[in-house]
Amino acid sequence: xxxxxxxxxxxxSSTDDKSLTSQRLKAFGQVLSVGxxxxxxxxxxxSAVVGLLPSTVRxxxxxxxxxxxxxxxxxxxxxxxxxxxxxxxxxxxxxxxSAHMVTLSGQSPFCINASLRHVLHSxxxxxxxxVVWCPGGASITxxxxxxxxxxxxxxxxxxxxxxxxxxxxxxxxxxxxxxxxKAYRHAIQACDKIIVAFSDTESGLDEKxxxxxxKFMESHLEKSAARKAFKA
Length: 232
Description:
This is E3 ubiquitin-protein ligase UBR4 N-terminal domain-containing protein. The chain contains eleven helices and no strands. It is mainly alpha-helical and about 230 residues long.
């Protein structure tokens, strides 16, 4: 998802707006990392802070999440759309390869958004399948640690059903309070970084974003999971 945020912000920085410095883009990226509305634990935070970003950033995020993605065959198409081919999986791979070539070479200016969206979708889908196929073992724990932040990143909102499925699977594997504690810890650490690293003038964040981060942390102090997250 970090690559997705970078890709989105690179499109924003390609405009003629000279105020979009590297520091500002980093600050915007940090906000986007907790901008999703997938999780109840950070739902209020995500919509509040993303709504305060510059319109150019919000528009780029909306375009990313609302692009059709019809350039690529659907997941599992080798079992239906290509079922009558001699080697369905080979036809499926060839169709994906062709779609990447068309999207990468047929756009002006050059843009990797469609390809990157498909790659991220494929990786998340594969990861979610692994959680089902191989429910035990240290490797799944490592996979969970990698995929956990995707639940909160605004760039994965177009993967809604898969991300919600991941959350449900993570909840199956641990008590809900522990999951909430982990969610709060993730959000609190992100808020802390926004406040500490990006509260200066050069970062260009609306001061209301800093206020929303502080309000989020203060408003959840009464919750047991949030208090434990603060102490961690």
